[in-house]
């Protein structure tokens, strides 16, 4: 048995299908099946069984997966310790955050990071999923909630204000009860709960998982929207309807594994992020009156 076989096992347990495992590991499905079969033959027991198209661990497989996941984190820790000794600010740092933050705010500021550290490379993962920092799926995670558990170094980066917005074009007539909103799988978020509380007899005319799509929908007169101020205030197609003070706040947090923080590339990137968020604090909070706010 070797760690590489266990890596296939752990990934299959996490992904649930051969196809998804193959994509994650950048191999083909036959390789995944072959490595799993070799591991099962070496251990002398079945570790997975097929169930309605998914690969589910057997009772023995579940216990093996638990141990293998701990080995995976230990291997990642060894790698981080080795990298920490290098000291130079170079190599790849992987940052995960929600897509709106990456596309609308982070990418335009990256040239400043590259100017400071020319040998640094950045992988940005735009995702609402909680990539596992301990397994090195990401070096730095930026999330719209403080983690309830886990061994992380955490720091609050900003408070994000949300306000009501409509189309800036005066020739667009939008009913007061027409709204745009995120897809139903995000109904648990504070902004969606607030919107549903205000909805009353109104209707949601458009749902999307794309913030940029919702912004364009509001600008086009499809409906009003409850949007983050740092995105909406900068869009000339929108006007704030709810006044200078946001009606909702959420907190933005940075998560780093304790073993990763000593890495020069991670430390340098984290410090740069803190500086940029501090500079933009007022814009994120949304307390600066928009020049396009509707009159009271």
Summarize the structure.
It holds the Pfam family LysR_substrate. The protein has 296 residues and is α/β, with parallel strands linked by helices.
Describe it for me?
This protein has 296 residues and is α/β, with parallel strands linked by helices. 41% of the residues lie in helices and 23% in strands. The chain has 11 helices and 11 strands. β1 (48-51) and β2 (54-57) form a beta hairpin. α1 (3-15) packs across α2, α1 crosses α3 (29-43) and α2 (18-25) crosses α3 (29-43). The longest helix is centred in the N-terminal third of the chain and has 26 residues, at 59-84. The model has no long low-confidence stretch (mean pLDDT 85).
Strand and helix layout:
Elements: H1 3-15, H2 18-25, H3 29-43, E1 48-51, E2 54-57, H4 59-84, E3 91-97, H5 99-106, H6 110-116, E4 120-126, E5 140-143, E6 153-167, E7 178-182, H7 190-199, E8 203-208, H8 211-219, E9 225-228, H9 229-232, E10 238-240, E11 248-256, H10 264-279, H11 281-285
Parallel strand pairs: 3-4, 3-5, 7-8
Antiparallel strand pairs: 1-2, 5-11, 6-9, 6-10, 6-11
Helix pairs in contact: 1-2, 1-3, 1-4, 2-3
